[in-house]
Give the backbone structure.
Amino acid sequence: MTEDRSADTSGASEANRRAKVARLREEGINPYPHSFLPRDHAADILAAHDPAALEEGEHPEFRYRVMGRVTGKRGHGKIVFFDIRDVSGTIQAYARRDKLGEEAFARIEELDLADIVGVEGVLYVTKRGELAVSVETCTLLAPALKDPPDLFHGIKDPEVRYRQRELDLIANESSREIFKKRSDLTFAIREYMHGHGWVELETPILQRLTGGAAARPFVTHHNALDRDLFLRTATELYLKRAIVGGFEDVYEFGKFFRNEGMSPNHNPEFTMLEMFVGGADWNGVMEFVELLVASVVETVMGTTVIERDGVEIDFTAPWPRVVLRDELLRETGVDIYEASRDELAEVAGADAEENDDWAGLVDTLQGKLVEPKLIQPTFITVLPIDIWPLVKHHPDDPKVCEAFDGIVAGLEIVGGGTDINDPVEQRERFVGQRERQESGAEEDPHPTDLEFVRALEYGMPPASGCGLGIDRLLMLMTGSKTLRDVIIYPAMRELPGEQ
């Protein structure tokens, strides 16, 4: 709350701001002091006191030091109120000429919007019954040399918001809240995993071979080794090698890189939780991940129910499970197990690519006809085996396997299945994947990872895994429409003349 709710958005010109800094230096004042500790947070001060229970005026028994950005300033002759915003919130500062003296008060009067200051003083209750800090000292910690964005209305232009995220964070409280929730989400996931006895591992980001996902990798060159390396597209093969070594329930939480197109739902650099449940088949990992997601959504949001596009979405486990064959039969009248490649291409229409095989077309139809209709969290199960070369076959038909995709609001947030632990079968599946890639049905042929096959030859217990997209989950939780709203520095196309 503020003493005067009108916002001063006039600001000073950049020339005047720079002149102020030069003048301070000439007067022997360092406009960039080295520290301001200890300090208190605005939200903690506001939470600690009930202004209705306090008399108007100063309360010297409560002393505080606050550091933050000046977001509003109102002068009343011999009194100045200014708002200080830190990471936790905003609190008023109350400055009086007769208390500070002419020189110190003049320094406060010349503060510009967006300057960063450190204020020390005692608790003060205003005439309106609002809390403030009665200023005893005010130190300029970092002058803002440029006029700030509109601190009252915020920034609407997405180009500015995504390219200059610092301005978005300065101006838009909603953006700051999204990234606070992102921090809360990652903490809640780790807390849940460790509370259930899981071990977090760190596998290489620079990999000798790329594997674990059908995706085009980023390639870099290591000068000392004189060899090309790949930014990881997945962590799956390394985590399963750790299971061979004796671990059971393992996960990795980190950045993944796929050198592909961009869209509201895709960014070349993204965050994923990849996990493996030791001793479980696909049912076990589906049960674990639905409980994990429900728990962390409730922890962060205070409820398992969110609203998106006017519809309530409930993450409470268990999530329904549907079979892809049944869903496509309902949508198209075609039994994909009986249909030929050409029949499926006719159903797919313009979405069919020339080199698509049966598996690719089924995958296309899943994305086109099934996923958009699944609003509540749902697992689509029994998926084409050629799309999942690391997953065990399904007993119903050799063309499908024990794989699943988890869909919420038409968006895939998780995918996984029962992992192959037979090294002979895995080698054969790698060969089949290579042939499929070379046929053009799948892009970007990858070399067979013989080190992984060799690791399986030492014996890997049954395990099932999945990858959970953190950015997409946060999109749903916060009502965001694009990944760029939840990735603090998203990839952007270069502007003409940009360096």
